[in-house]
Design brief:
Oligomer: single chain
CATH superfamily of the largest domain: Butyryl-CoA Dehydrogenase, subunit A, domain 3
Largest sheet: 4 strands, mixed
Number of domains: 3
Strand order of the largest sheet: 1-4-5-8
CATH class of the largest domain: Mainly Alpha
CATH topology of the largest domain: Butyryl-CoA Dehydrogenase, subunit A, domain 3
CATH architecture of the largest domain: Up-down Bundle
Radius of gyration: 21 Å
Structural class: alpha+beta
Shape: globular
Bound molecules: flavin-adenine dinucleotide
Order of helices and strands: HHHHHEEEEEEEEHEEHHHH
Helix content: 40-55%
C-alpha cells in the first residue's frame, strides 16, 4: 500500500497549484462579485493542459485518469470553485464519457476540440421535473431521416451559456419503464434550435454559468449517439460515479481553503491578550477540520484509484462525495466562526467558501441520494 503521491501526481498537483495561485486566487473574489464567467481562466487552463487531462493522448490529451483529475481539481477548487466546477464537468462528465463510451469516429470528432478548450463541455441531464429522480426526464427524441429531433428543456446546466458541446439525455422510447428508453446524444451548442433559457442567480459559484437549455426540434445526426440507443441512462449513472469524484474533489479543495485561512487568521488575531489558536475551543475546531480533510481526501483518492483500475466503484464514489461534501460544509461553518464578524464580510474569502461549499451537498446527487446509493450497495 502506498499513500504518497507518485512523481507524476506530484507534478500535476504542483502545476495546478502554481496555475491556481497565479491565475485563479487573485481574481476569484472579483469574479464572484461581478458574476463574471471566467473565460480567460478557462482558456489558460486549457493551454496548461488541464482541460485535456482525461482525453486520450491520440486525441491530444494527457490520457490520465480519475486520480490525476482529483488531485488537479482539489488545487483549482481551493482557489476558485466556479472555475473548478466548470472544469470538473468538462473533464469528468463530458471528456471521460466520450473517451469511455464514444465510437472512435465520435471521439475523433470532438475529443481534440475538448482537449484544446475550443469546445467546453456541458452535461444536460436534469429537467424541471427530473432532479434526484433523473430517470423521469421527458426531453423527447423523435426519429427522423438520418438522425433524431430533440425537444425539451434542461435545467441547471453548468456552462450552459458558454459551452461548445453538450451531452443531452433524451427519451427515444417512451413505451418502456423510466430509465429504459433514454439515449445520450452529443449536441453542439451552435446547432439550430438550441437556446439558453433562464440564467440562475445563485448563492455560490457565482462566476460559473448555470442556465436552462432549451431544445426546440434540434436535429442530431445518428453518428452523435453515445453508446447504444435506449442505453443512455446506464451511461449517465456510470459517468456520474466519476463526476462524484470531481465534486468530492471540489469539496476537499474548498475545505482545505477554509482550513488554511482559519489557521492563518487564528494565529494572527488576538483576544484576551493571546492569539485565537491558543484557545482550546478554536484549536480543537482546527484539529477536527484537518482530520476530516485528510479522511475525505483518502476516500476520494480511493474511489478515484478504484475507477482507474477499471473496477465498479459506485459505492465508494458515493461515500467519497457524501463524506467530503458534509465535511466541507462543516469546515466552512467553522471557518466563518473562527473569523468572527470578519468572516461574515466579503473582506475575507471564508465568506465565499461558505457560500460555495453549500452546493457540494446538492448537485450530482444530493446527500440523501448518496445514502440511498450506498445503502443499496451494502
Ligand atoms: C449550481 C448547480 C449546477 C448544476 N449543474 C448541473 C449540470 O451541469 N447538469 C445537470 O444535469 N444538472 C445540474 N444541476 C442539477 C442538480 O444535479 C440537481 O439540482 C440535483 O440533482 C438535485 O435535484 P433537485 O434540485 O431537483 O432537487 P430534488 O430532487 O427536488 O431534491 C430536493 C431534496 O429532496 C431530497 N430527496 C429527493 N428524493 C429523495 C429520496 N428519494 N429520498 C430522500 N431524499 C430525497 C434531496 O436529497 C434534496 O435534499 C445543477 C444544480 C445546481 C444547483
Amino acid at each position: 500500500m502506498e499513500f504518497d503521491l507518485s512523481e507524476d501526481l506530484e507534478m500535476i498537483r504542483d502545476s495546478a497549484r502554481e496555475f491556481a495561485d497565479r491565475s485563479l486566487r487573485p481574481h476569484a473574489a472579483r469574479r464572484d462579485a461581478e458574476e463574471k464567467f471566467p473565460t480567460e481562466a478557462i482558456q489558460e487552463a486549457a493551454e496548461n493542459g488541464f482541460l485535456g487531462l482525461t482525453v486520450p493522448e491520440e486525441f491530444g490529451g494527457a490520457g490520465l485518469g480519475n486520480l490525476h483529475g482529483a488531485v488537479m481539481l482539489e488545487e483549482l477548487n481551493a482557489a476558485d470553485a466556479s472555475v473548478g466546477v466548470t472544469i470538473s464537468v468538462h473533464i469528468s462528465l463530458v471528456c471521460s464519457l466520450l473517451a469511455k463510451h464514444g465510437t472512435p469516429e465520435l471521439q475523433a470528432k470532438y475529443l481534440p476540440r475538448l482537449a484544446t478548450g475550443e469546445m467546453v463541455g456541458a452535461y444536460c441531464l436534469t429537467e424541471p421535473q427530473a432532479g434526484s429522480d433523473a430517470a423521469s426526464v421527458r426531453t423527447a427524441a423523435k426519429r427522423v431521416d438520418g438522425g433524431w429531433e430533440l425537444t425539451g428543456t434542461k435545467s441547471w446546466i453548468t456552462t450552459g451559456e458558454t459551452c461548445g458541446l453538450m451531452v443531452v439525455y433524451a427519451v427515444t422510447d417512451s413505451n418502456v419503464k423510466p430509465g429504459s428508453g433514454i439515449t445520450a446524444f452529443m449536441v453542439e451548442r451552435s446547432y439550430d434550435g438550441v437556446s439558453v433559457g433562464k440564467k440562475e442567480e445563485k448563492l455560490g459559484l457565482r462566476a460559473s454559468s448555470t442556465t436552462e437549455i432549451i431544445l426546440d426540434g434540434v436535429f442530431v445526426p445518428d453518428e452523435n449517439i453515445v453508446g447504444e440507443v435506449n442505453r443512455g441512462f446506464k451511461i449517465a449513472l456510470d459517468t456520474l460515479d466519476g463526476g462524484r469524484i470531481g465534486i468530492a474533489s471540489q469539496a476537499i479543495g474548498i475545505h482545505r481553503a477554509c482550513l488554511e485561512a482559519s489557521i492563518k487568521y487564528a494565529s494572527e488575531r488576538e483576544q484576551f491578550g493571546k492569539p485565537l489558536d491558543r484557545f482550546q475551543a478554536v484549536s480543537f475546531m482546527l484539529a477536527d477540520m484537518a482530520t476530516e480533510l485528510d479522511a475525505a481526501r483518502l476516500l476520494v483518492h480511493r474511489a478515484a484509484w478504484l475507477r482507474d483500475q477499471g473496477k465498479v466503484a459506485t459505492k465508494e464514489c458515493s461515500m467519497a462525495k457524501l463524506f467530503a461534501s458534509r465535511a466541507c460544509n462543516k469546515a466552512a461553518i467553522d471557518a466563518v466562526q473562527i473569523h468572527g464578524g470578519a468572516g461574515y464580510t466579503k473582506e475575507f474569502d471564508v465568506e465565499r467558501y461558505y457560500r460555495d461549499a453549500r452546493i457540494t451537498e446538492i448537485y450530482e446527487g444530493a446527500t440523501d441520494i448518496q445514502r440511498i446509493v450506498i445503502s443499496r450497495n451494502l
